[in-house]
Specification:
This protein has 10 helices and no strands. It is mainly α. The protein has one domain.
Length: 209
């Protein structure tokens, strides 16, 4: 099968991002705000962010959590709660991958036909960025892959927190703006997500070069 030209690949990627955002906004706009507000009364903050801490360890996607938290708890509470939940999640993931389950996880990776790289210290940051910028890979797989590859905890934790929060913030704003039907915040959230997509593509291209 012939390979598509780079320009066409970039155009299709951009269209895919816009369609994805459009579907999210459409789905969110059809949600009854009163239903969300009723749910808020029965959805205390702590259990929600505990769920965000532990469920992604077994593969539950984080993006819906970000949008729901923005709608349910507002931007500031959501950013703080998400930061704490992701930090604890990263620490637990590190402990799992470097602990007793390490041989099992390595065997699972070996069955896929992939091998873990033998990294030098100066390549840790580069490799961490590259893994975090892979759009189609689930977040929990990225966590375990980085830990099993021998990335030091400061590099793994620091870069993962920065990149994860940069990714989470626009979705939190998007969730809050959809609930409140706030067009200005919606435009800001979409602009941030489009910019983030472009930045991801640019960083991956630079690092691959």
């Amino acid at each position: 099968m012939p390979k598509l030209p780079k320009s066409l690949q970039n155009t299709l990627t951009a269209l895919g991002v816009l369609v994805f955002l459009g579907l999210l906004i459409y789905a969110g706009w059809r949600v009854d705000p009163e239903k969300i507000r009723e749910w808020q009364q029965d959805a205390p903050v702590v259990p929600f962010f505990i769920a965000l801490t532990f469920l992604p360890l077994i593969g539950v996607p984080t993006t819906p959590f970000f949008m729901v938290s923005g709608a349910a708890y507002g931007i500031l509470v959501s950013l703080l709660g998400t930061a704490v939940a992701l930090a604890v999640n990263l620490i637990i993931s590190f402990g799992i991958a470097r602990g007793g389950l390490s041989p099992l996880l390595q065997r699972l990776i070996a069955k896929t036909g992939h091998t873990l790289p033998d990294l030098e210290d100066k390549r840790e940051i580069h490799f961490t960025f590259m893994v975090r910028m892979i759009p189609a890979m689930p977040n929990f797989v990225k966590n375990y892959l980085l830990c099993l590859a021998g990335i030091s905890f400061p590099v793994y934790f620091g870069l993962s927190m920065i990149i994860s929060m940069v990714y989470a913030a626009p979705f939190i704003i998007l969730g809050e703006s959809i609930l409140e039907k706030d067009t200005s915040d919606l435009v800001i959230a979409v602009a941030l997500l489009v910019a983030l997509s472009g930045l991801t593509h640019w960083v991956r291209k630079k690092m691959q070069n």
